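[Q] Does anyone have a clean structure-token version of this?
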Amino acid sequence: MEVRNVQKTGDMHYLYLPTLWCREHKIGSKSKVSIEQSSDGTLIVSPHIIEKKLKHLKFSISEDDQDIIHKLVVACYVNPASSFEINLEKEMDFTKLLNQKRLISLESVEIDKKQITCHGAVSISDPESLLKTMVKKIKNMITVMQKSYDKELIERYEDEIDRIKMIIEKSIISSLAFERVTKLKTIDLYYISLISKDLERTVDHLIRISNKELEFLNKIYDVIDQLQSIIENTNTLNHKTALQFIKKVSKIGNFEVKDIKYYDMERIRNSLTTIAEVITDWAITKEIER
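[A] Here you go.
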């Protein structure tokens, strides 16, 4: 490895390219090079203009199992493809496929007889902002459950939270696969992905909780409120903050699974406990980095 001094003229910083490297790749005063920044902040200089293009995916499948088709559509959506086309061997009842809650929230996905297509799928480069939005929407949903318990509004919140979680997945996979410029490190993307998945699991069971369980809903709201504070200030995250969050989650208590109600409560508690563990891991990583 060769170390070179960074020089400065006015507001511009620069360094000289190695002479032998320029000679080897025929780099002259009128040449152009590619500069790419990876997710860990590394700059990569390439002797040729590199233009990465997203790929169009095209599949022909003989499956008629709607769950299998649904999983393939979601996988195509969350990956960094420019578009995709899935051709089925035989026509199926798409009304049942459309009832899959994760599928109906995907922009640009069209279903027509024996073909599923998507053109120009959404791509978001800031999964941290998406996670913040996700947490806020969960707080709002719990508030509705505590007060008016508008079932239609609660379901809309759930659909939106599912959608945000999927876009987070898409954003993270795109960042890792194409090393797109992002202020986040790879390890941050990892923790964001884990938290978003368990938040979605929490909501899947939370929507089945009755407004009669007000004490339980209040405890969950307090946990999500503290989580929001953590997500809004990840740069200052430390072990003390993480331990406070663990204590907050522990106040929910354990539930003996007597029926479906207690099953949902226990699953919510388990998901939030897992999030507390991820927050603690993330806090220790942050302290190591400082």
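[Q] Thanks! Anything notable?
[A] The mean pLDDT is 86.
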